[in-house]
Design brief:
Blueprint lengths: L1 E6 L3 E3 L2 E5 L10 E9 L4 E7 L4 E6 L4 H10 L4 E4 L2 E4 L3 H12 L7 H10 L1 H5 L3
Amino acid sequence: MRTEIHINSGTQNGPVITFPILEKLKTQTLIPSGKMITDSEKMTFVYLVDEEEQYGQLHFEQAVWPLLVESIKLHKDPVITYNENTILLNGFIEELTMLIYNIEGNNNYGEAFSSAVESAFEEILKSTI
C-alpha cells in the first residue's frame, strides 16, 4: 500500500521554497528517496518517499510548477512541511531537471503532458543551467 499526497500550494521565502502538506498524515516518518518519476495521466511530477512500512508519493501538481522552475533557478532543493516536521527533498533539483530534459519533445509521456512541461519549463529548457 502506498500513500499518495497531492501538493498544490507552496511558498517562497528568499531562496527557500516550501511545500506544505495540509492533510494529516498517518505516519510521522517521511524519508526522502532522492528519486522522482512522473504520472503523466495525473499531469504530476512525483517525488518518492519511504514511510515506516510502505512508500509514499508526493505528487506536484501543475499549480506549483512555477515554484519548481524557481527551485531549479535557485539550484536549491525544496522542503516539505507536515505534522510539525520540515524535510529537505534531497536530489529533487537534479531529478526534476533530468526529467524535464527527457520529456522535452518526447511524446512517450503523452502529448498533453509533454506540451504542458515544455510550456511551464520553457525558461529552463532554453537556458544553459
